[in-house]
Design goal:
393 residues; alpha/beta; Aspartate Aminotransferase, domain 2; 13 helices; 42% helix; 15% strand; binds pyridoxal-5'-phosphate
């Protein structure tokens, strides 16, 4: 006999989420999640699936028929992309300029692929010249890059240049848009990206659980003409076609409530307009950036590659990053994050994504961060920071 544990009612703190995700969820999305469950093959749910696919095509700016949410977090859509595109013996070219390029490499390895790299230091984007050289040296079959590197706060510019290099070499391109989709300009079709995957809990401000993926016909042709099955049954796109394609037959039970949530989150994107949403992220995060810089802090990413949805701020001398993070959580119920990997201890990562990319969140963040730094003896001009932010807003 195992005794029943004394577990009380769930009472999570009411945080303001300004980390690398999840971001604040819009109340309409939370309401959608408390609507009644239906079956995953219910005619009403089939309509919900169609809506989600249409809204995802708009958000990705693509006509791709193959546009679906993958059950799971961003890593699941990432593994669906890589695990289906990379066959045993294929070579995948991945970047070394951040945390998520390494994850691409692990997934390509597990898919039976060989991994080669195009090098750039952490905190810098890929240079198309280096990408071209890597194609010449390694003749890869698949090329992956990270559009918005959440570990460094760097936005990869010149995406069309990268895709044209790849296509001149007959190579398919996979883009990680987890921290850009719905927050930073990304145009799947105009930029000739073959496969893009994302996550719901960053710029779409939806809880994690159903993650966007789109593939064009070239990519799907490769997937459907594989000689061996992908190693994952759950993420096998040729099987998922049965559920999300015309047939609508059972493969696995879709996370109904997460699909409801994604539908509402994407409806918010289309109501606002995708370009207006990109503009909002730039202007609201721009006020955040102006504030921290006027306070005397330094951004980690150079201005040309600044990523509005994820702001990396250098920790000033004599300050411990973790102490400030804890103070913001304790005193302000405010979440920001520390650096990862090579930047651990050197930066804070401050998200400005989706429903968190609002003037009130940014003002609150500047006030709280200013107080935390002053309290711990940092040499910062809090008033100048607050003034710059309110001017910019
Ligand atoms: C968050 C993130 C992922 C992984 O998503 P999870 O939802 O944590 O599985 C992948 N790539 C990038 C760039 C991310 O920021």
């Amino acid at each position: 006999m195992v005794d029943a544990p004394a577990v009380g009612e769930l009472t999570p703190p009411n945080r303001t989420l300004m980390g690398p995700g999840p971001s604040d969820v819009h109340p309409r999305v939370l309401r959608a999640m408390s609507t009644p469950l239906v079956g995953h093959l219910d005619p009403s749910f089939i309509e919900v699936m169609d809506d989600v696919q249409d809204l995802l095509r708009y958000t990705f700016q693509t006509e791709n028929q193959w546009t679906i949410p993958i059950s799971g977090t961003g890593s699941a859509s990432m593994e669906a992309a890589i695990g289906n595109l990379v066959e045993p013996g294929d070579t995948m070219l991945v970047p070394t300029n951040g945390y998520f390029g390494d994850r691409m490499a692990s997934m390509a390895n597990r898919a039976g692929g060989e991994v080669v790299t195009v090098d750039a230091p952490w905190g810098e984007p890929l240079d198309p010249v280096d990408v071209e050289a890597a194609f010449d040296e390694h003749s890869p079959d698949v090329f992956g890059f990270v559009h918005a590197e959440t570990s460094t706060g760097v936005l990869q510019p010149s995406v069309p240049e990268l895709t044209s290099i790849a296509h001149a070499n007959d190579v398919l391109v996979i883009a990680d848009t987890v921290t850009s989709l719905g927050g930073v300009e990304f145009r799947t079709d105009d930029w000739d990206v073959d496969v893009a995957y994302s996550g719901p809990q960053k710029c779409l401000s939806c809880p994690p659980g159903a993650s966007p993926l789109t593939l064009n016909d070239d990519a799907m042709d490769k997937v459907l003409s594989r000689e061996t099955d992908p190693r994952s049954w759950y993420l096998d796109l040729s099987l998922l076609e049965g559920y999300w394609g015309d047939e609508r037959a059972y493969h696995h039970t879709a996370p109904i409530t997460n699909v409801y949530a994604l539908r509402e989150a994407l409806r918010l994107v289309s109501e606002e307009g995708i370009e207006q949403r990109w503009d909002r992220h730039r202007s609201v995060a721009g006020a955040l950036k102006a504030g921290v810089e006027s306070m005397g802090l330094e951004m980690n990413a150079p201005d040309e590659y600044w990523l509005p949805s994820l702001n990396t701020v250098r920790v000033p001398d004599g300050i411990d990053d973790g102490t400030i993070i804890q103070y913001l959580l304790d005193e302000y119920d405010l979440e920001i994050a520390s650096g990862l990997g090579a930047l651990s201890g050197d930066i804070w990562r401050i998200g400005c994504m989706g429903h968190s990319a609002r003037p009130r969140n940014v003002s609150y963040l500047l006030t709280a961060l200013g107080d935390a730094l002053a309290e711990h003896g940092a040499d910062v001009d809090v008033d100048a920071g607050l003034a710059a932010t309110s001017d910019a807003l």
